[in-house]
Design brief:
It is built from three helices and three strands. With about 70 residues, the chain is an alpha+beta fold. The longest helix has 10 residues. It is elongated.
Amino acid sequence: MPKMKTRKSAAKRFRVTSSGKVKYKKQGLRHILTKKSTKRKRNLRHGAMLSEPETKRVRRLLPHQF
């Protein structure tokens, strides 16, 4: 049986917390920032947690993290 491999693209985008939740960085803060409001850019700076159904999907991509 071959080893299970981690999807490296997912490993770079998601981190697993100690409680098992999946943390990610919000998208939309790389370019075209002039038309976005200051409040919107400030809220995009902070990370967020994935929902339960999405966590199950990411769990298959990161077999060694859980």
